Amino acid sequence: MSRKKIIVVGSGVVGASIAYHLARRGAEVQLLDERQAPGCGVTGHAFGWINLVNGSSTANPASYRLRLQAIEDFRRLETEFPEAFEGVRCGSIVWEKTPAMTEARAREHQAWGAPIELVDAAAIALMEPSLRDVPDCAAFSPDDIAIDPGDLSRALVRAAVSAGATANFGIKVTSVETLNGRATGVRTAGDIIDADAVVIAAGTAVDTLTSALGANIGVESSPCVLLRYQVEQPFITRILCGSELEIRQANDHSLIVATSYVEGAEDDAAMAIGHRFLEAIGRSLAVPGEIAFRKGVVGYRPFFADGFPRLGFLPQVEGVYVAVGHPGVILAPLLGRLATEALLDDRHSSLVPDL
């Protein structure tokens, strides 16, 4: 029996995960990306916080169930591919503007069985002694992890190639080729590449390819800013998320801050925001030694207002599969598994609504 030939368009963390899962199952996978390396788009600008605590079971119970399963799939991936998780940092401490709001947030997650604890100021100060203004209480999520999404994407692509996939970069897919209502491959600037199925995992660019097939997925872009600061030594152990700051420390000691971004701001808005956040960091944390702002980038996350990703075959054209959504880093292992089950086993999950 011949192997199913599948092209995956996009090597962000979702596309990389799909390529990895397909290749491990024996599919003939070709990964294509117009960028020069995996994880160089919005994935490379993601904060990398794998968590439940930022989801809301009250506002969207079905989306929260999806997030619960996504965390389980992350644990599965960590077990089967431990080398991709070397050096990750574990645990987060989260607090709201008032203790009552923090308590409500912790209780909400606890009601779903999430391993989240409500801790007092003394416990917080013991865990993170560099905090200047220690909150009265916080939600402590010990199983959360901080990971570099770009590194994870590259590790998944390397593993996919080791399992038999091919990965080609600097190649822009301009259209999906079809015949008699079925996908037959893709067209690039210089070639036509044949395939039995095409997976479009191109983030906010998904509609560029699907619209030519008569399908508008309706993906929106949600901008965010990722800031990076240089410090001299490690002093934060966990992810810290308060009313003023969302911050973690990477393995190279740099501080990484995630914040929102307003469209239409000045061209150097990320740089300006980065310099302003120096004050917030100083108010919140006792930074040992010098701190210097090094980089600010804006990332455009693929987003849908209902809080769900889009995952499934296009009804308009047989053999075209779409995978896109936010939070892509958290969802990536789950989407990789579900896409593989759909493409190779014709199994479809009720966790994600049909296209």
TrEMBL record:
Residues annotated as signal peptide: none
Gene Ontology cellular-component terms listed: cytoplasm
Keyword Transmembrane belongs to the record: no
One matching Pfam family: DAO
Gene Ontology MF terms: oxidoreductase activity
Residue ranges annotated for the FAD dependent oxidoreductase domain, each copy included: 5-341
Keyword line: Oxidoreductase
Entry annotated with the keyword rRNA-binding: no
Domain of life of the organism encoding this protein: Bacteria
Designated name of the protein: FAD-dependent oxidoreductase
UniProt lineage: Bacteria, Pseudomonadati, Pseudomonadota, Alphaproteobacteria, Hyphomicrobiales
